[in-house]
Amino acid sequence: xxxxxxxxxxxxxxxYAPLPVVLHSGAGAWLTDIHGRRYLDMMSAxxxxxFGHSHPRLVAALxxxxxxxxxxxxxxxxxxxxxxxxxxxxxxGMPRALPMNTGAEAVxxxxxxxxxxxxxVRGVAPDRAEVIVCAGNFAGRTTAIIGFxxxxxxxxxxxxxxxxxxxxxxxDAAALEAAITPNTAAFLVEPVQGEAGIIxxxxxxxxxxxxxxSRHNVLLxxxxxxxxxxxxxxxxxxxxxxxxxxxxxxxxxxxxxLLPVSAFLAREDVMAVFTPGDHGSTFGGNPxxxxxxxxxxxxxxxxxxxxxxxxLGDMLMxxxxxxxxxxxREVRGKGLLIGMELDPALVSARxxxxxxxxxxxxxxxxxxxxxxxxxxxxxxEQEIDIAVAAFTAVLQEFDMAA
Length: 402
Ligand code: PLP
Known about the structure:
Elements: H1 2-11, E1 23-27, E2 30-33, E3 38-41, H2 44-47, H3 56-68, H4 81-92, E4 96-100, H5 103-122, E5 130-134, H6 143-147, H7 152-155, E6 165-168, H8 173-179, E7 184-189, H9 205-216, E8 219-223, E9 247-250, E10 262-266, H10 268-271, H11 287-302, H12 305-322, E11 328-334, E12 337-342, H13 349-358, E13 361-362, E14 364-366, E15 370-373, H14 381-401
Parallel strand pairs: 3-13, 5-6, 5-7, 7-8, 8-9
Antiparallel strand pairs: 1-2, 2-3, 4-10, 9-10, 11-12, 12-15, 14-15
Helix pairs in contact: 3-11, 4-11, 12-14
This protein binds pyridoxal-5'-phosphate.
């Protein structure tokens, strides 16, 4: 184990600080390390592995398509892209989709669409378009995206940044309305902020944002890379408030936990701004990705993963809220996207996660204060009890150490 960690440290850029475990295989909600020790996965690759590891149906779709045709580029039509996007659009109620690979690429796609729409449709003066974002946002790591991050570490040393972004507080609809100007193209928002530490806005926030954007003819673009595809107990987190955005960004679970697959979906008049040559990606919409995405969307419906996330998420949240400990500041979330905020003066979230690992549960801290829980949506009640027991054991350890 030490050797493999040393090898990774020797050759890989140190842009992550992994927990000291070397994983070898995974099945369902469980991961196994190179010594054969099993861990309950309460992270699911930052919500990408919603179906559990190597779901047999998804692996079957992947391997069958890999044997048939994997990558062609969009220079040609294929028999996989149309059916995949039809299913995606019909399920989400969005008329059109543009396939990409990673979440950040789909966010960049949304930003390009919003700007061009602003010039062509809203009549914003050339190069003046603005996109309103929220403090605490996370949308990936490209230079444009980190330019509107409010997290100093994500930005430090990577400037200069693209202009055209305005930041408002998250959860404050009045602040959004006050920030809109004749140059505003869009409001980009996560229905629940994931990386920021699972921040749930006040009830009604998204619906108010919808009304404000409609009133001012500004696009409401929801970044559901993390919250979408059943994670919060509905197909989309927007569905909790009956909100239909003008642009929708999906990623992570869209690839079934096997491949990077993302998409920007939008209203007809928004997507219509793209003409051949305006935008693209060598791998976006490749047959392999489409076959897996198609199967993943089908599985989501057949296995009722949204209802499952709601039921098990409520159960997990209730059980975590019953844990009484001075270090626990708050347990919050929606569906199976849950964060436990710890008092950093008493317990570091990183230390907490390392101890959870010793008890056979994998999680990851965010910002040093929040332990995140986003298990595969196929997790069982028994497995949730295993996770809660590990939390209890770790809290007791901190008591003994105090
Ligand atoms: N948007 C949100 C809300 C995310 O949580 C993430 C990743 O965590 C991204 C975008 C970026 O996705 P990717 O890491 O696939 O580029």
